[in-house]
């Protein structure tokens, strides 16, 4: 499975990338939504882990863009962010995010959300 991690925090990307590599996944990384779209355009992505607050193109903009593309309809998206406002959670889900995790997170939290959207590793 190919996982795209989109976060402007190098530390968060390292943590998530290590977690997914340990699970046997191929991992792509992007610092913002614009870079993420290039990764998506270059090959099949099964799961995107997306932060909300990023420069250039934020996570909500990325989710909206991905969901407008017919060829991306099967990509599962989990927002992983510090945004805790229930209105923002609703906006992310309405935009097309499949699940939402608030930072800080654990591996078990990520696995639980993956199971909820039908991904078993």
What would you say this structure looks like, in words?
- This protein is α/β, with parallel strands linked by helices and 121 residues long.
- It has a single domain (2-113), classed as 3-Layer(aba) Sandwich (Rossmann fold).
- Helices cover 44% and strands 20% of the residues.
- It has helices at residues 10-22, 33-42, 59-68, 86-95, 107-116, and strands spanning 2-6, 26-30, 47-50, 76-81, 99-102.
- The chain has a five-stranded parallel β-sheet, sandwiched between helices.
- The model has no long low-confidence stretch (mean pLDDT 94).
Instruction: List how many beta strands DSSP finds.
Output: 5
- The CATH superfamily appears as Response regulator
SS content category: alpha/beta
What pattern of helices and strands is seen along the backbone?
EHEHEHEHEH
Radius of gyration: 13 Å
What oligomeric state do the depicted chains represent? single chain
Beta-strand percent range: 15-25%
CATH class, named Alpha Beta
Q: What is the overall shape?
A: globular
CATH architecture type: 3-Layer(aba) Sandwich
> Termini distance?
9 Å
Number of helices, where a helix is a run of at least 4 consecutive DSSP H or I residues: 5
Mean pLDDT: 94
- The percentage helix is 40-55%
For the largest beta-sheet, the strand count, sense and barrel status come to: 5 strands, parallel
User: Could you please say which CATH topology applies here?
Assistant: Rossmann fold
Q: How many structural domains are formed by the residues?
A: 1
